[in-house]
Design a protein that fits this description.
Largest sheet: 8 strands, mixed
CATH architecture of the domain at 214-412: 3-Layer(aba) Sandwich
Order of helices and strands: HEEHHHHHHEHEHEHEHEHEHEEH
Radius of gyration: 43 Å
Strand order of the largest sheet: 5-4-6-3-7-8-9-10
CATH superfamily of the domain at 214-412: P-loop containing nucleotide triphosphate hydrolases
Number of helices: 14
Strand content: 5-15%
CATH class of the domain at 214-412: Alpha Beta
Length: 422
């Protein structure tokens, strides 16, 4: 082994020894520093504890001296929280507990007062009279001519058909008008109007009983009403408006959201109910069995001894068999708790004869007792009142003439005829 190799080995060993020595020294120094820091922290903690014990002894001595002097602790101050004064419980020791602020009292929800039925009828009459009525105006323009020709009578029948009076009713009305001497002769406008008014009233049904069964003397309590109709006719909205109408008559109402097919239907019904403090029974999930909702709603109405139960149903029209099955089930389960007094079919008056086929399907599916015509704004489609009653054999009981929450009123034949002839 040469000299250079030996020198290299010695150098490496020397460096290793130095590194080990430096590591041992550094470790001892760190431990000493930690021990010193712990001792200082302990000394500070002991000093703080001693100071706290001294202060506590001094406080106890002061309290004992104060008690011997017969001093009474001062009452805790009144705490204000959002303009509400709360007096805390008197303290039982020399140091009173801090008072806990009271939660503010929630403001009660404002409940709307719906318009009365009588006021609605008068207002809706005015709406009809002030609206454009091409149906009545066109008839009147033709019938006030002198010496009506065959072409004029054809125009009368066409006007009635365009107004959705229906073929059978139109033919009947034309035959009666042609036999009336006040119209076929040289009569004045007042006589023509009077004759036309009487004949339209006969077709509409002036003496028909249009009362809701819930308003009759022998009505059941609760009186159950099932609302049916195709989606888009305003069925759910009409159910909410009907609840308002009953509330205006000081009746207690419960609603059931059995339209579980349309996601927004239950929310929409709850919004209507909240405004007039009417509870709504609904399912926790969309697509639930509508019959189960109807059963729970009827049970709640019975338990609450409500005056009226209104059940909103789905308006989808897949096919006649499915519709009959679903509506029939809803009616059966409801009648396990309450008899169903009324089935109201909601029709959009603006659809005219196009809605008659669907109306017949609903009539056969569940057996309707009355019709609600929504959107009857006095337009050329006003004749639907006549045709729907003739086709379905049930009366129009309610009409809606606007988007307002109280734009639903009992149907008044004279007001309707006077409105379209105004």
């Amino acid at each position: 082994m040469d000299t250079n190799t030996i020198i290299g080995i010695v150098a490496v060993v020397a460096i290793a020894v130095l590194l080990i020595a430096w590591g041992v020294w550094n470790d001892r120094s760190r431990k000493k520093a930690l021990a010193k820091a712990e001792e200082e922290a302990k000394a500070k903690a002991d000093a703080r504890i001693a100071a706290e014990e001294a202060a506590e002894r001094k406080s106890q001595a002061a309290e004992a001296e104060h008690a011997q002097a017969g001093a009474t602790p001062k009452p805790a101050p009144t705490v204000r929280h959002e303009d509400t004064e709360v007096a805390p419980t008197p303290a039982t020791s020399a140091t009173p507990e801090p008072a806990t602020p009271a939660a503010p009292t929630p403001k009660p929800k404002s409940v709307e007062q719906p318009e009365s039925a009588g006021s609605r009828i008068q207002r809706l009459k005015a709406k009809l009279a002030n609206s454009a009525n091409p149906f009545g105006k066109a008839l009147f323009a033709i019938l006030t001519k002198d010496n009506l020709s065959e072409s004029d009578w054809e125009d009368v029948e066409d006007t009635l058909l365009l107004a959705d009076v229906g073929a059978e009713a139109s033919e009947q009305l034309v035959d009666e008008l042609r036999k009336d001497a006040r119209i076929t002769g040289k009569a004045d406008a007042a006589e023509v109007r009077a004759s036309l008014r009487e004949k339209l009233l006969d077709l509409v049904g002036r003496d028909t009983d249009r009362r809701l069964n819930a308003n009759k003397e022998n009505a059941n309590k609760p009186s159950a009403i099932i609302m049916v109709g195709v989606n888009g006719t305003g069925k759910t909205t009409t159910a909410g408006k009907l609840a308002r109408l009953f509330v205006s008559e000081h009746k207690q109402v419960v609603m059931g959201a059995a339209d579980t097919f349309r996601a927004a239907a239950a929310d929409q019904l709850e919004t209507w109910g909240a405004k007039v403090n009417v509870p709504v029974v609904r399912s926790d999930k969309d697509g639930a069995d509508p019959a189960s909702v109807a059963f729970e709603a009827s049970a709640k109405a019975k338990e609450d001894n409500a005056d009226v139960l209104i059940i909103d149903t789905a308006g989808r029209l897949q096919n006649k068999a499915n519709l009959m099955d679903e509506l029939g089930k809803i009616r059966r389960v409801t009648e396990k708790n309450l008899p169903v007094d009324e089935v109201l079919l909601v029709l959009d008056a603006t659809t005219g004869q196009n809605g008659m086929t669907q109306a017949k399907v609903f009539a056969e599916a569940i057996g309707i007792t009355g019709v609600v015509l929504s959107k009857l704004d006095g337009s050329a489609k006003g004749g639907i009142v006549i045709s729907v009653q003739k086709e379905l054999g049930v009366p129009v009981k309610l009409v809606g003439l606007g988007e307002g929450p109280d734009d639903l009123a009992p149907f008044d034949p004279e007001g309707f005829v006077d409105g379209i002839l105004a």
